[in-house]
């Protein structure tokens, strides 16, 4: 059996006027860099060191093969078939791998998730331990650079031997056998899509196909996007908390830095400072109780803990983004090759990190849902009308909005069950313990969308309270509505809030209108 020798790989020029995220062994790719690539706000390219590392890794693999080493997927079958010899035809071996993994089910992953997946996999290959043919690595990068988006079912990976099935759908597109998801949401044949993008189908050897699929890139993509979003949402929750304090005239003492420094948690200190920055030049209402309810007074303790939890999750996810998650791992040099067989494709770290981030997203959302309850109730909101209605009885104000927030809070709680301990054996007992990291990361990402709804509804409630005060329908001075409310207008007569919720929630997910993370 022989493996194909590929031509030299060249570093890629920057694409157009977009900022370029350089991939390679000395580069550190962040969650936000993955998000920018996913959203088309940045391009991606192999740096010179990535080119050298990929070519060296391939030469090292070939040297080990010529020496007669037993190499998984190259001289052997896959999974429990490792005890059997591989197909003598290397390309037939590769074709068979991505064919049998072309399963999966459920809705297709969004284009942004797929682009994030391609970026994460390209960075894994750029580290130079995969032994992939340079042309195959370049072909995968070309999908990203030409915005050719493989159609990948969301369900099918157990996060154990990497994201085999999702990544196989991406690999099949390279061979012209898969499907592509267009910008309009249509699904077309890969051969047509490649032709339209000016790309040619390629053949993948068994080793090249395995290097494409035997990693954690799908789950890491979901987790990266979720972390980037969650960090923004927590900072927005802090901004909403400050807005609620301003609206109610709450006592500022709860944000005094001395309280939080005395405890010493970095996230809590940062969260209190963030909220306090929104209280400058705003007066307290000394007629309010000395101590507010916990959802306001203890917001730094809750949201600060969320910050700490997300910082942990980020550290794990970014370590994975910049680490080797292949099997086998090619080490050494062409003169002293080593092909090491292990389990770096196992997604347990991502699974734990995604569950941790999920918990933070849920708790931040539940805190904000309770703040919403404060501002719609006359007993706590300083005497504003029940449910912030313009004319209670004749109008219902925020009733539908609060019910929606409650329903979404229930959805958030229901989807907070950890996935990291949901192992189930599969693959002929070869994968007898699995991480379910892909499920954990996908659920975590979906939770950010639910959280944005709760935050958007609270923002609408605060905007409505300001509107009522502005028009003399509620006691107290109106507080200005932040610019990032995206054109919200208060309401006299009842109106459907669905469009407002969607518009404001989408802005919270997509834009960092509060600036860089503290």
- Give the percentage of residues in beta strands: 5-15%
Over all CA atoms, what is the radius of gyration? 26 Å
Main sheet, how many strands, which sense, barrel? Answer: 2 strands, parallel
The outline comes out as: elongated
Number of helices: 17
Q: Determine the N-to-C terminus distance.
A: 56 Å
Fourth-tier CATH superfamily name of the largest domain: Fumarase/aspartase (Central domain)
Helical proportion, percent range: 40-55%
Strand order of the largest sheet: 1-2
| CATH topology title of the largest domain | Fumarase C, Chain A, domain 2
Uncertain segments are: 1-8
Q: What is the residue-mean pLDDT, rounded to a whole number?
A: 95
Please provide the count of β strands: 8
Order of SSEs? EHEHHEHHEHEEHHHHHHHEEHHHH
Oligomerization state of this entry? single chain
Describe what you observe in this structure.
- Strand 1, helix 1 (31-38) and strand 2 form a beta-alpha-beta unit.
- Helix 4 (111-126) runs antiparallel to helix 5.
- The protein has 2 domains: 20-215, Orthogonal Bundle (Fumarase C, Chain B, domain 1); 223-324 and 368-510, Fumarase/aspartase (Central domain) (Fumarase C, Chain A, domain 2, Up-down Bundle), CATH 1.20.200.
- The radius of gyration is 26 Å and the shape is elongated.
- With 518 residues, it is mainly alpha-helical.
- It has 17 helices and 8 strands.
């Amino acid at each position: 059996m022989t493996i194909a020798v590929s031509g030299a790989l060249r570093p890629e020029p920057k694409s157009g006027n977009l900022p370029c995220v350089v991939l390679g062994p000395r580069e550190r790719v962040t969650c936000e860099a993955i998000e920018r690539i996913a959203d088309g706000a940045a391009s991606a390219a192999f740096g010179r060191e990535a080119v050298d590392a990929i070519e060296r890794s391939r030469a090292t693999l070939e040297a080990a093969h010529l020496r007669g080493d037993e190499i998984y997927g190259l001289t052997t079958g896959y999974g429990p078939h490792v005890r059997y010899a591989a197909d003598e035809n290397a390309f037939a071996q590769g074709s068979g791998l991505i064919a049998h993994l072309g399963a999966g089910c459920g809705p297709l992953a969004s284009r942004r998730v797929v682009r994030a997946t391609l970026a994460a996999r390209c960075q894994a290959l750029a580290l130079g331990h995969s032994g992939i043919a340079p042309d195959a690595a370049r072909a995968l990068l070309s999908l990203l650079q030409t915005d050719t988006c493989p159609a990948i079912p969301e369900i099918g990976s157990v996060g154990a031997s990497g994201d085999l099935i999702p990544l196989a759908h991406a690999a099949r597109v390279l061979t012209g056998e898969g499907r592509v998801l267009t910008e309009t949401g249509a699904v077309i044949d890969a051969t047509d899509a490649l032709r339209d993008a000016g790309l040619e189908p390629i053949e993948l050897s068994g080793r090249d196909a395995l290097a494409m699929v035997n990693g954690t890139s799908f789950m890491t993509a979901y987790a990266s996007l979720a972390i980037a979003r969650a960090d923004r949402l927590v900072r927005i929750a802090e901004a909403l908390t400050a807005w609620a304090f301003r609206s109610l005239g709450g006592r500022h003492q709860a944000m005094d830095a001395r309280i939080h420094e005395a405890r010493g948690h970095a996230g809590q200190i940062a969260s209190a400072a963030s909220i306090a920055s929104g209280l400058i030049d705003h007066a307290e209402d000394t007629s309010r109780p000395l101590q507010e309810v916990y959802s306001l007074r203890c917001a730094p303790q809750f949201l600060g803990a969320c910050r700490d939890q997300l910082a942990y999750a980020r550290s794990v996810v970014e370590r994975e983004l910049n680490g080797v998650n292949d099997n086998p791992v090619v080490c050494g040099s062409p003169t002293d090759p080593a092909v090491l067989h292990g389990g770096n494709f196992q997604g347990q770290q991502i699974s734990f990190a995604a569950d941790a981030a999920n918990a933070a997203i849920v708790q931040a959302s539940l805190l904000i849902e309770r703040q919403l309850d404060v501002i719609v109730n006359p007993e706590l909101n300083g005497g504003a009308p029940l449910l912030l209605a313009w004319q209670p009885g004749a109008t219902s104000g925020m009733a539908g909005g609060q019910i929606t927030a409650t329903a979404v809070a229930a959805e958030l709680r229901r989807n907070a069950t950890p996935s990291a301990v949901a192992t189930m054996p599969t693959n002929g007992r070869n994968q007898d313990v699995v991480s379910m990291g892909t499920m954990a990361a996908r659920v975590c990402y979906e939770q950010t969308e639910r959280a944005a709804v709760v935050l958007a509804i609270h923002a609408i409630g605060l905007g409505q309270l300001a509107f009522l005060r502005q028009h003399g329908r509620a006691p107290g001075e109106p507080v200005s509505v932040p610019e990032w409310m995206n054109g919200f207008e208060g309401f006299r007569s009842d109106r459907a809030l669905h469009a407002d919720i969607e518009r404001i929630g989408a802005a919270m997910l997509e834009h960092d209108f509060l600036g860089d993370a503290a």
